[in-house]
Amino acid sequence: MGIFELPSDFLAPIVRAMIVPPEITGATDFRIDTAHFTRHLKAAYVTMHERAQPGELPASFAIEALPSGI
Fold first, then answer.
1. pTM of the model
2. I need a surface site. Which of 18, 22, 51, 66 has the fewest CB within 10 A?
């Protein structure tokens, strides 16, 4: 699963926190599962590395969804 294909319920709070300050939204809980996000990011880098080793050109790919830790 690519970063732009992550489930909206996972990505929406991150994007919202970057765009709208909490004092405007009234949000009090910004639990972001950074370990979960990092596992997906690492899986993407591993996939890119494995594809680059035999000389494959850059191309779109998907990473399987991993279980959340929250």
1. 0.53
2. 18
Q: What SS3 state is found at 31?
A: coil
Task: Give tens-digit pLDDT for 4-58.
Answer: 565 656 666 666 666 655 566 566 655 667 788 888 889 999 999 999 999 998 8
Query: Under a CB-based contact definition with an 8 Å cutoff, are residues 32 and 13 in contact?
Result: yes
pLDDT band of 66, cuts 50, 70, 90:
confident
CA atoms of 56 and 70, how far apart (whole Å):
36
Burial letters 35-51, b for 16+ CB under 10 A, else e: ebbebbeeebeeeeeee
Cα 70 to Cα 9: distance, rounded to the nearest angstrom: 13
Tell me which residue of 25, 32, 24, 14 sits closest to 68, measured CA to CA: 32
